[in-house]
Amino acid sequence: MFQTEMLAAYLAAVLLVIISPGPDNILAISRGSSQGPLAGSLSSIGAGLSIMVHTVAAALGLALLLQASPVAFWAVKVVGAA
To answer: Is the entire prediction scored with pTM above 0.85?
Structure first.
C-alpha cells in the first residue's frame, strides 16, 4: 500500500498532467479563436478520432509489430501519407 505522502505527491502530479493542455487542445483553441467554433469543433473531433485509432491499434498489438518490422512500419507510413 502507498504511504500517504507518496500518494498525495502522485495525485498532485496526475492532476497537473490532466489539467495541462496538450498540443491537440491548443490547436482546437487556436483554430476556434481564429476561424470560428466550427473549425475548433472539427479540430477537436479529429484529435479525438486519431487518439481512438491509436488506442485501437495499440490494443491490437500493432505497435509491437511496427517495432519489430521496419517493412511494416514503412507500409503504415505510406498508407498514412496516402
So the answer is: no
